[in-house]
Amino acid sequence: TDGGQAWAASGPVTTEDLTAAAFPDPNNGWIVGDCEQLWNTTDGGQHWTTTVADVTPPKVTVGKKTIVVKRGGTVAIPYTITDDLSATATVTAEVTPPGGKASVKSLGSQAVGGPLNWSFHCTWPRGRYVVSLRAVDESGNPSRWSRAVTIVVK
Hints:
Blueprint: E1 18-22, E2 29-33, E3 37-41, E4 49-52, E5 59-62, E6 66-69, E7 74-82, E8 88-96, E9 103-111, E10 116-121, E11 127-137, E12 149-153
């Protein structure tokens, strides 16, 4: 209340490192720490509320490196999504055909945690295709592209 000339002990009780604070006015303020928690006060620091900030992206893990299929057969790519704070994630597949330009296909919203499969009837011409998956969690955090899966169409 005096522009930072005097300080009194007040604020969130935590053993985590606090990394930033912002007070747009004497009553309202935010503090963030390494522990993905946000603290907010509306009464100059007398009372604090806390919430967890979801800043960690999901991880997509594919279950196979190579899949061989006959044209007209069914391709099933097993994968899982892990994320500590989201129940669902929007999944995208990137498919690169032999000597061609990659295309992207949305697989929609998928559950986090359990085994999943992207299955489809393969009408692709013969050749080797490279497929990677990516997920975006409920907070908008994108994963890295998964390890590539090679699909060999015979």
